[in-house]
Amino acid sequence: MITLRKAIARGHADHGWLNSHHTFSFANYYDPNHMGYRSLRVINEDWVAPSKGFPSHSHRDMEIITYVLDGALEHRDSMGNSSIIRPGEVQRMTAGTGVSHSEYNHSKSDGVHLLQIWLLPAQNNLEPSYEQKSYSSSEKRGNLRLIASQDGRDGSVTVHQDVNFYGTLLNNGEQVTHAIKPDRHVWVQVAQGSVVLNGHLLAQGDAAALDDEGTLELVGKDNSELLVFDLA
Protein backbone atom coordinates (compact mmCIF):
# COMPACT_ATOMS: atom_id res chain seq x y z
CA MET A 1 0.00 0.00 0.00
CA ILE A 2 1.27 3.46 -0.91
CA THR A 3 -0.05 6.46 1.02
CA LEU A 4 0.74 9.89 -0.39
CA ARG A 5 1.39 12.94 1.79
CA LYS A 6 1.17 15.97 -0.50
CA ALA A 7 3.15 19.10 0.29
CA ILE A 8 0.08 21.33 0.14
CA ALA A 9 -1.57 19.35 2.96
CA ARG A 10 1.28 19.91 5.44
CA GLY A 11 1.10 22.19 8.43
CA HIS A 12 2.57 25.66 7.93
CA ALA A 13 3.99 28.36 10.18
CA ASP A 14 5.41 31.69 8.99
CA HIS A 15 7.26 33.55 11.75
CA GLY A 16 8.81 36.10 9.40
CA TRP A 17 12.38 34.99 10.05
CA LEU A 18 11.34 31.32 9.74
CA ASN A 19 9.02 29.79 7.14
CA SER A 20 8.32 26.18 8.07
CA HIS A 21 6.23 23.35 6.61
CA HIS A 22 5.44 20.42 8.91
CA THR A 23 4.97 16.93 7.46
CA PHE A 24 3.86 15.70 10.89
CA SER A 25 2.21 17.41 13.85
CA PHE A 26 4.57 19.96 15.36
CA ALA A 27 4.27 22.95 17.70
CA ASN A 28 0.92 24.67 17.01
CA TYR A 29 0.10 22.34 14.11
CA TYR A 30 -1.79 19.31 15.34
CA ASP A 31 -3.34 16.61 13.17
CA PRO A 32 -4.10 13.30 14.93
CA ASN A 33 -3.85 11.53 11.56
CA HIS A 34 -0.28 12.76 11.06
CA MET A 35 1.58 12.31 14.31
CA GLY A 36 4.57 10.63 12.67
CA TYR A 37 5.38 7.44 10.81
CA ARG A 38 6.91 4.48 12.64
CA SER A 39 9.88 6.02 14.54
CA LEU A 40 9.84 9.16 12.37
CA ARG A 41 8.37 11.96 14.45
CA VAL A 42 9.27 15.22 12.67
CA ILE A 43 10.14 16.28 9.14
CA ASN A 44 10.12 20.07 8.94
CA GLU A 45 11.09 21.90 5.76
CA ASP A 46 12.51 25.22 6.96
CA TRP A 47 13.65 28.43 5.35
CA VAL A 48 15.67 30.65 7.71
CA ALA A 49 15.99 34.33 6.74
CA PRO A 50 19.39 36.07 6.47
CA SER A 51 20.94 37.08 9.80
CA LYS A 52 18.32 35.09 11.72
CA GLY A 53 18.17 31.77 13.52
CA PHE A 54 16.90 29.57 16.32
CA PRO A 55 17.91 30.82 19.78
CA SER A 56 19.21 28.28 22.27
CA HIS A 57 16.53 25.74 23.15
CA SER A 58 16.48 22.29 24.74
CA HIS A 59 15.58 18.76 23.66
CA ARG A 60 15.70 15.34 25.26
CA ASP A 61 15.08 11.72 24.18
CA MET A 62 15.17 12.43 20.45
CA GLU A 63 17.49 11.65 17.53
CA ILE A 64 17.80 14.91 15.56
CA ILE A 65 19.15 15.04 12.00
CA THR A 66 19.81 18.33 10.21
CA TYR A 67 20.00 18.13 6.41
CA VAL A 68 20.89 21.42 4.70
CA LEU A 69 19.75 21.90 1.10
CA ASP A 70 20.95 25.46 0.47
CA GLY A 71 22.97 27.99 2.43
CA ALA A 72 25.05 27.56 5.60
CA LEU A 73 23.75 27.04 9.14
CA GLU A 74 25.85 27.54 12.26
CA HIS A 75 25.30 25.06 15.10
CA ARG A 76 26.30 25.51 18.76
CA ASP A 77 25.33 23.23 21.63
CA SER A 78 25.74 22.64 25.34
CA MET A 79 28.14 19.75 24.64
CA GLY A 80 30.66 22.34 23.40
CA ASN A 81 30.23 21.65 19.68
CA SER A 82 30.37 24.48 17.15
CA SER A 83 30.14 23.89 13.41
CA ILE A 84 28.77 25.10 10.09
CA ILE A 85 26.42 22.75 8.21
CA ARG A 86 26.37 23.12 4.42
CA PRO A 87 24.69 21.22 1.56
CA GLY A 88 26.02 17.67 1.42
CA GLU A 89 26.69 17.64 5.15
CA VAL A 90 24.51 15.85 7.67
CA GLN A 91 24.46 16.44 11.39
CA ARG A 92 23.16 13.96 13.97
CA MET A 93 22.52 14.92 17.55
CA THR A 94 21.34 12.50 20.22
CA ALA A 95 19.47 14.63 22.74
CA GLY A 96 19.24 11.81 25.28
CA THR A 97 19.13 13.05 28.88
CA GLY A 98 19.06 16.65 27.64
CA VAL A 99 20.92 19.06 25.39
CA SER A 100 20.55 22.71 24.38
CA HIS A 101 21.51 24.07 20.98
CA SER A 102 21.15 27.08 18.71
CA GLU A 103 21.21 27.39 14.92
CA TYR A 104 21.96 30.61 13.06
CA ASN A 105 22.21 31.90 9.50
CA HIS A 106 25.09 34.40 9.41
CA SER A 107 24.61 35.39 5.77
CA LYS A 108 23.34 38.95 5.35
CA SER A 109 21.84 38.20 1.93
CA ASP A 110 21.08 34.48 1.54
CA GLY A 111 18.54 32.31 3.31
CA VAL A 112 19.09 28.75 4.51
CA HIS A 113 16.87 25.92 3.26
CA LEU A 114 16.97 22.77 5.36
CA LEU A 115 15.13 19.71 6.59
CA GLN A 116 14.89 19.07 10.33
CA ILE A 117 14.29 15.36 11.01
CA TRP A 118 13.50 13.84 14.39
CA LEU A 119 13.37 10.14 15.19
CA LEU A 120 12.21 8.57 18.44
CA PRO A 121 15.16 6.67 19.96
CA ALA A 122 14.99 2.97 20.73
CA GLN A 123 15.62 3.84 24.39
CA ASN A 124 15.44 6.96 26.53
CA ASN A 125 18.04 8.59 28.78
CA LEU A 126 20.97 8.07 26.43
CA GLU A 127 24.12 10.11 26.85
CA PRO A 128 23.91 13.17 24.55
CA SER A 129 26.23 12.99 21.55
CA TYR A 130 26.97 14.70 18.25
CA GLU A 131 28.20 13.71 14.80
CA GLN A 132 28.60 15.48 11.47
CA LYS A 133 29.68 14.01 8.13
CA SER A 134 29.82 15.05 4.49
CA TYR A 135 28.43 13.08 1.54
CA SER A 136 29.41 14.18 -1.95
CA SER A 137 26.97 14.57 -4.82
CA SER A 138 28.83 11.86 -6.72
CA GLU A 139 28.10 9.36 -3.90
CA LYS A 140 24.37 10.08 -4.14
CA ARG A 141 24.03 10.56 -7.90
CA GLY A 142 21.92 7.67 -9.24
CA ASN A 143 22.56 5.77 -6.02
CA LEU A 144 20.93 5.29 -2.64
CA ARG A 145 23.75 6.49 -0.36
CA LEU A 146 23.37 5.31 3.23
CA ILE A 147 23.51 8.42 5.43
CA ALA A 148 22.31 7.23 8.85
CA SER A 149 21.96 3.79 10.40
CA GLN A 150 21.80 2.05 13.75
CA ASP A 151 25.29 0.56 13.37
CA GLY A 152 27.01 3.45 11.55
CA ARG A 153 28.09 1.19 8.71
CA ASP A 154 29.49 2.37 5.38
CA GLY A 155 30.44 5.74 6.81
CA SER A 156 26.89 6.67 7.87
CA VAL A 157 26.15 8.62 11.02
CA THR A 158 24.88 6.52 13.92
CA VAL A 159 21.29 6.87 15.12
CA HIS A 160 19.88 5.04 18.11
CA GLN A 161 16.97 3.52 16.23
CA ASP A 162 16.39 0.70 13.72
CA VAL A 163 16.41 2.83 10.58
CA ASN A 164 18.40 2.99 7.36
CA PHE A 165 18.28 6.52 5.98
CA TYR A 166 19.43 7.07 2.39
CA GLY A 167 19.91 10.11 0.18
CA THR A 168 19.84 10.12 -3.60
CA LEU A 169 20.17 12.57 -6.49
CA LEU A 170 18.42 11.70 -9.74
CA ASN A 171 18.62 13.32 -13.15
CA ASN A 172 15.65 13.23 -15.51
CA GLY A 173 15.03 9.57 -16.40
CA GLU A 174 17.57 8.23 -13.91
CA GLN A 175 16.26 5.33 -11.81
CA VAL A 176 17.04 3.63 -8.51
CA THR A 177 15.28 0.71 -6.84
CA HIS A 178 15.23 -0.51 -3.27
CA ALA A 179 14.07 -3.95 -2.13
CA ILE A 180 11.83 -3.68 0.92
CA LYS A 181 12.18 -6.60 3.28
CA PRO A 182 9.09 -8.15 4.91
CA ASP A 183 7.95 -6.26 8.01
CA ARG A 184 9.90 -3.13 6.93
CA HIS A 185 8.29 0.18 6.08
CA VAL A 186 9.57 3.00 3.87
CA TRP A 187 9.02 6.74 3.91
CA VAL A 188 10.18 8.82 0.93
CA GLN A 189 10.51 12.61 1.19
CA VAL A 190 11.08 14.72 -1.92
CA ALA A 191 13.57 17.39 -0.90
CA GLN A 192 13.96 19.01 -4.32
CA GLY A 193 12.70 18.47 -7.85
CA SER A 194 10.16 15.81 -8.78
CA VAL A 195 10.10 12.04 -9.14
CA VAL A 196 7.90 9.14 -10.16
CA LEU A 197 7.55 6.72 -7.24
CA ASN A 198 6.06 3.34 -8.20
CA GLY A 199 3.98 5.15 -10.82
CA HIS A 200 3.00 8.14 -8.64
CA LEU A 201 4.29 11.62 -9.53
CA LEU A 202 5.66 13.49 -6.51
CA ALA A 203 6.91 17.09 -6.41
CA GLN A 204 9.06 19.01 -3.92
CA GLY A 205 7.72 18.65 -0.39
CA ASP A 206 5.58 15.63 -1.27
CA ALA A 207 6.11 12.32 0.52
CA ALA A 208 4.90 8.74 0.44
CA ALA A 209 4.63 5.87 2.91
CA LEU A 210 5.10 2.33 1.60
CA ASP A 211 3.63 -0.54 3.62
CA ASP A 212 3.46 -4.15 2.45
CA GLU A 213 5.31 -3.21 -0.75
CA GLY A 214 8.15 -5.38 -1.99
CA THR A 215 10.00 -2.77 -4.04
CA LEU A 216 10.55 0.96 -4.14
CA GLU A 217 11.19 2.33 -7.62
CA LEU A 218 12.18 5.97 -8.12
CA VAL A 219 12.55 7.65 -11.52
CA GLY A 220 13.80 11.23 -11.66
CA LYS A 221 11.82 13.89 -13.53
CA ASP A 222 13.41 17.27 -12.87
CA ASN A 223 16.79 17.04 -11.22
CA SER A 224 15.70 15.74 -7.85
CA GLU A 225 16.97 15.08 -4.35
CA LEU A 226 15.21 12.47 -2.23
CA LEU A 227 15.41 11.11 1.29
CA VAL A 228 14.47 7.46 1.85
CA PHE A 229 13.84 6.01 5.31
CA ASP A 230 13.69 2.23 5.68
CA LEU A 231 12.10 1.70 9.09
CA ALA A 232 11.23 -1.15 11.43
Automatic annotation (TrEMBL):
Listed name of the protein: Pirin family protein
Domain Quercetin 2,3-dioxygenase C-terminal cupin: 146-231
GO molecular function: metal ion binding
Species this chain originates from: Myxacorys almedinensis A
Binding-site list for Fe cation: H57, H59, H101, E103
Limits of the Pirin N-terminal domain: 11-119
Cofactor: Fe cation
Domain of life, source organism: Bacteria
Taxonomic path: Bacteria, Bacillati, Cyanobacteriota, Cyanophyceae, Leptolyngbyales
Pfam families: Pirin (PF02678), Pirin_C_2 (PF17954)
Cross-referenced PANTHER family: QUERCETIN 2,3-DIOXYGENASE
Assigned keywords, A-Z: Iron, Metal-binding
Keyword Iron: yes
Record CDD domains: cupin_Yhhw_C, cupin_Yhhw_N
Family indicated by similarity: Belongs to the pirin family.
Co-factor binding comment: Binds 1 Fe cation per subunit.
